[in-house]
Amino acid sequence: MSLINDLINLDLTDTTKKIIAEYIWIGGSGMDLRSKARTLSGPVSDPKELPKWNYDGSSTGQAPGTDSEVILYPQAIFKDPFRRGNNILVMCDAYTPAGDPIPTNKRHAAAQIFSHPDVEKEVPWYGIEQEYTLLQKDVRWPIGWPVGGFPGPQGPYYCSAGADKAFGRDIVDSHYKACLYAGVNISGINGEVMPGQWEFQVGPSVGISAGDELWIARYILERITELAGVVLSFDPKPIPGDWNGAGAHTNYSTKTMREDGGIVVIKKAIEKLGLRHKEHIAAYGEGNERRLTGRHETADINSFSWGVANRGASIRVGRDTEKDGKGYFEDRRPASNMDPYVVTSMIAETTILLK
C-alpha cells in the first residue's frame, strides 16, 4: 500500500511537461457526475485552449446506441487537488456532433441568460448553501447512526463538536481544503441539524461561475467520499420523520440591490418570484415535496411567503439587509439535488428580465 500511495502522490513536474486533464460532465440523471482523463502536452489555463472531446452517451442515458457520440465542450478549469502539480479538472457541457446542446445540458441555456445585457449589467452574485448527507456504504444509513436504529433527537448536532455529535469531520475538512486548492470560492462549512448531515457554501460567485464552482465542489466531494468508503447523498429528505431535510439555499443580489435604496429592488424581485412560484418549484429539485412541508425550517411547497429573519418562509431577508436598506436575500426553496445552472439562471431571469 505504501508503494501505491507513493505512486498516487507522484509529482510529474520534474520529469515531464505533460499534464493530466480530468474532463467532468453531468450524466443523464442530472445528478450523476462523470469524468475521464486525457494527457495534454503542457499546462493550460484557458478552457478555450483545450480540445473538445467525446464520450459514449448511450452509457450515460444521454444518447441512443445507434448514434451515441456526445461532444464535450470545456468551459472552466480548476486545479486538481488529487493529482496536484499542473494537472487540472475541467468542467464541461455536452453537445451533439452538430453543435446543439443535448437535452440534459442545462449550462447552455443558463449561459444565454447570464450573457443577456440586462443581466450582465446587474452583476448577479450568488452564495449557495449546499447541504448533503454522509451514509454508511453497505447499509445506506447515515454515518454515526446505530445500524437499524436512531440517534437521540435533533438539537445537539448543529455546528457541534464531539465524537457523539459530529460524524464525518475528516471528510468535511478534506473537502474544504481541496476546494480551496482547486480554486473553488468555497466560503465555509458547518455541521447541520440532522446528525451525519453537513453543509458547505460556495460564493459569492458571479453569474455562470456559481454553477461551475458548485458542480466542481460536488465532484471533489464525490471523490473524497469514494476514498473514504462513504456514500454521498443529495436526497432532500434522506430520512423520513422528525429529521431535517437537505436544501441548497441560494443567496442572491444584484448591483442595484447592493446599492443605497436596494431594499426597494429586493422587494420588487421577491414579488416577481412569488408570481412564478410554481415554475420555480418545478425546477428546484426532485423529491422537494418531501422536504418543503412547512416544518423543519421550511415553507410549505404550495404557498409562497417571505419575511425578515424567517427561516420558515420561502424567501428570507436578513436583519442586516433590512437595517442597511440594501443587500441580498435568500431563496430557501431549492432542494439539495437542484441543478445550480437552472436555479441561478432562473432567479436572474425572473428578477431581472421578467417585466
From TrEMBL:
It is found in: Cytoplasm. InterPro entries: Gln_synt_N (IPR008147), Gln_synt_N_sf (IPR036651), Gln_synth/guanido_kin_cat_dom (IPR014746), Gln_synth_cat_dom (IPR008146), Gln_synth_gly_rich_site (IPR027303), Gln_synth_N_conserv_site (IPR027302), Glutamine_Synthetase (IPR050292). Residues 106-355 form the GS catalytic domain. Pfam families: Gln-synt_C (PF00120), Gln-synt_N (PF03951). GO terms for cellular component: cytoplasm. GO terms for biological process: glutamine biosynthetic process. Keywords: ATP-binding, Cytoplasm, Ligase, Nucleotide-binding. The keyword Ribonucleoprotein does not apply. PANTHER family: GLUTAMINE SYNTHETASE (PTHR20852), GLUTAMINE SYNTHETASE CYTOSOLIC ISOZYME 1-1 (PTHR20852:SF93). Belongs to the glutamine synthetase family. This is Glutamine synthetase.
